[in-house]
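A favour, since you know our structure tokens better than I do. Go ahead and set the record down below.
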Amino acid sequence: MTTVHHLLGQKSKEIWSVSPDSTLRDALKLMLGHELGVVVVNDAQGMVGIFSERDFARAVARNENLSLNSPVSELMTTQVYCVHAEDLIEDCMALMTARRIRHLPVQQGKEVVGMISIGDVVREIVSQKDTTIRSLEDYIMGREYSSG
């Protein structure tokens, strides 16, 4: 069983964040510049929310006069579901599916140490299934197992 720790080992260690009073424009520029779907929103005490492409798209659909100078705090998601490094990716998939969310911050204590996406989880699960299928095919055909 693969853990979140394994997924984090395959990703960049950088956590991109903005403050609650950052403008939508600044947050979106940061997301564009680093090809991110989400950023963590931190104040002096730590994470207070996340801001995602989905948050922005929904806000635009609700208010066509939305100002890009509005603070992120007006649109950010404040009910954030988090996971920990020792959690299994299958559990992450279940949480993401049940809650219809695409990103999960990874916490160690109160500190955010990573971010995983539904794409990360799906890729890892598919990779595991492919490895299992190859090993079963090798077993059935009487070949020695090859991991590559």
Summary: The first helix runs from residue 4 to 9. The two ends are 19 Å apart (CA to CA).
